[in-house]
Amino acid sequence: xxxxxxxxxxxxxxxxxxxxxxxxxxxxxxxxxxxxxxxxxxxxxxxxxxxxxxxxxxxxxxxxxxxxxxxxxxxxxxxxxxxxxxxxxxxxxxxxxxxxxxxxxxxxxxxxxxxxxxxxxxxxxxxxxxxxxxxxxxxxxxxxxxxxxxxxxxxxxxxxxxxxxxxxxxxxxxxxxxxxxxxxxxxxxxxxxxxxxxxxxxxxxxxxxxxxxxxxxxxxxxxxxxxxxxxxxxxxxxxxxxxxxxxxxxxxxxxxxxxxxxxxxxxxxxxxxxxxxxxxxxxxxx
Length: 286
Known about the structure:
Elements: E1 4-10, E2 15-21, E3 27-31, E4 36-38, E5 43-45, H1 47-58, E6 62-67, H2 79-86, E7 89-93, H3 96-106, E8 122-124, E9 129-132, E10 135-141, E11 150-154, E12 157-159, H4 181-192, E13 199-201, E14 216-218, H5 219-225, H6 235-246, H7 255-262
Parallel strand pairs: 3-6, 6-7, 7-8, 12-13
Antiparallel strand pairs: 1-2, 2-3, 4-5, 9-10, 10-11, 11-12, 13-14
Helix pairs in contact: 4-6
């Protein structure tokens, strides 16, 4: 059964979220939702996530899963808010525990933050399959950007997370803790070994002035034209290019608030005695 797929673009974070469903009145999964966040005021908003809610309610879908491809550093997940609105289980790759352990140390989180992944309803192992109504989805481990990245495949469609971008943009950075350009090379080869017509759905697009944002490309198009990693690019060539480029990149604007929330499956830190949640800003630590 072919999945029905609807993309939603969050312009402030250049992020694509997806609703994947089997049929009208059937079952759905959300992939990589966005909670709005203003770093100047510290205020959140649900405008982007509300579009997903409206779409699901209009089509009378039952939300089975709220999926993350990884703990994003460039936007905040709306998973916790969506779960309150629509139900469903939250899911992420099993190696999220490695990310939690790393950032528990960076943010000096207390003993009440246990880095065992329990914040999510389910941790997916590589190759694990799970139903979304009449559809069957598969989690694919694709480390490199972080050690814990996963992609989700349903039939001939793959939601690649932060691995590949559109061919004219290239590939994801690998300089976060535990990142590896060599691992990303091999993760992308998993996609390149699939049939050329396989559809790849991007998590981000950063379009040049000559075009608008795009989210869908085939394996063949990536192998033919990806400016960082085409089908003929060797591992050594890619690693050299990726490491050189990563040295020139600034940290994402939202990395400090986003990681603290995303390792908690989109939940804010517990409110303090005054009823306010607080995020930590480590000084001179990154």
